[in-house]
């Protein structure tokens, strides 16, 4: 079925190091959303990207949407222990105007 | 309400039993979604309501699963003849509009089928 692939599955960093997670779809996405889920918690919306090549920043987080609208990335600069959690991208590979397909997520752990 | 509320937070049941999981969305949100999340996986779409009607139930795994939203607000996910493989966290999300709007998730119900 339609899938949104996300890599890496896990990432362990030292506090202060940077972190990037990548999201790929075989089909064009109308938009992509990013969510963060803390251990034991529920997904919390971070951002939505709509335009081809769009780049958005939230403090230390930088989100990019590829020119072809098939891939996206989330980059965290100078990680902190509060960044720990699983980061999910979610898109609509089938062109659905309401159904999100989530990637498997990238679990980020940060060593203080 | 202030956020999406799901009850119960945990449900332990025996194989073959019937369970109901409740979702109370953010007040005024017309769109409501149910997802299932297994360990190490992302949320998996189950069903989408726009108002009272199930606009898309294509994610329901089989006919043991059913969901309703009779008044366009609270929704109940019903699972008949539960199986051990149904064990997962069931998440509900609501959105102020249809389309690919921001989805606000509840804390989920952790279902354990023994």
Write up this protein:
The complex is a heterodimer of chains A (112) and B (114). In chain A, the strands form 2 sheets. In chain A, strands 2, 4, 5, 9, 10 and 11 form a 6-stranded mixed beta sheet that branches. A 5-stranded antiparallel beta sheet of chain A has the order 1-3-8-7-6, with no helix packed on it. The mean pLDDT of chain A is 93. With 112 residues, chain A is mostly beta strands. Chain A has strands at residues 4-7, 10-14, 19-25, 32-37, 44-49, 55-58, 61-65, 71-76, 85-91, 101-102, 106-111. In chain A, strand 6 (55-58) and strand 7 form a beta hairpin. Chain A contains no helices and 11 strands. With 114 residues, chain B is mostly beta strands. Chain B is 0% helix and 48% strand. Chain B has no helices and 11 strands. In chain B, the strands form 2 sheets. In chain B, strands 2, 4, 5, 6, 9, 10 and 11 form a 7-stranded mixed beta sheet that branches. Chain B has a 4-stranded antiparallel beta sheet with strand order 1-3-8-7, with no helix packed on it. In chain B, a hairpin with an 8-residue loop joins strand 9 (88-95) and strand 10 (104-105). The radius of gyration of chain B is 13 Å and the shape is globular. The mean pLDDT of chain B is 93. The interface between A and B is medium-sized, with 24 and 24 residues.
Give a quick summary of the entry.
The complex is a heterodimer of chains A (112) and B (114). With 112 residues, chain A is mainly beta. Chain A contains no helices and eleven strands.
Number of helices in the DSSP assignment of chain B: 0
Major sheet characteristics of chain A:
6 strands, mixed
State mean pLDDT of chain B (0 to 100 scale). Answer: 93
Give the helix level of chain A as a range of percent.
Answer: under 10%
User: What is the H/E string of chain A?
Assistant: EEEEEEEEEEE
Radius of gyration of chain B, in angstroms, nearest whole number: 13 Å
The profile of the biggest β sheet of chain B is: 7 strands, mixed
Name the chain pair with the biggest interface and residue counts per chain. A-B, 24 and 24 residues
Which value, in Å, is the CA radius of gyration of chain A? 13 Å
Low-confidence stretches of chain B: none
Provide the succession of SSEs of chain B: EEEEEEEEEEE
Q: Please give the oligomerization state of what you see.
A: heterodimer
Structural class of the secondary structure composition of chain A? mainly beta
Report the β-strand fraction of chain A as a percent range.
over 45%
> Low-confidence spans of chain A: pLDDT under 50, at least 5 residues?
none
Count of discrete alpha- or pi-helical segments spanning 4 or more residues of chain A: 0
Identify the overall geometry of chain B. Answer: globular
Query: Beta fraction of the residues of chain B?
Result: over 45%
Number of E-type strands of chain A = 11
């Amino acid at each position: 079925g339609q899938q949104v692939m996300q890599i890496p599955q896990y990432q362990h960093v030292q506090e202060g190091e940077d972190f990037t997670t990548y999201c790929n779809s075989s089909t064009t996405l109308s938009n992509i959303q990013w969510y963060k889920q803390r251990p034991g918690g529920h997904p919390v919306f971070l951002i939505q990207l709509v335009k081809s090549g769009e780049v958005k920043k939230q403090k230390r987080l930088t989100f990019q949407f590829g020119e072809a609208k098939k891939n996206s990335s989330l980059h965290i600069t100078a990680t902190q222990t509060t960044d720990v959690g699983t980061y999910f991208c979610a898109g609509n590979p089938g062109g659905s105007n309401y159904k999100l397909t989530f990637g498997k997520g990238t679990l980020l752990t940060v060593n203080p | 309400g202030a956020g999406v509320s799901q009850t119960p937070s945990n449900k332990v049941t025996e194989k073959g039993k019937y369970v109901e999981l409740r979702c109370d969305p953010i007040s005024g949100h017309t769109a409501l979604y149910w997802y299932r999340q297994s360990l190490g996986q992302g949320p998996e779409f189950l069903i989408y309501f726009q108002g009272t009607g199930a606009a898309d139930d294509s994610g329901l795994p089989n006919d043991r699963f059913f969901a309703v939203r009779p008044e366009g607000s609270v929704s109940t996910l019903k699972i008949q003849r539960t199986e051990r493989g149904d064990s997962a966290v069931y998440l509900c999300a609501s959105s102020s509009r249809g389309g690919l709007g921001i989805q606000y998730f509840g804390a989920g119900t952790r279902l354990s089928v023994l």
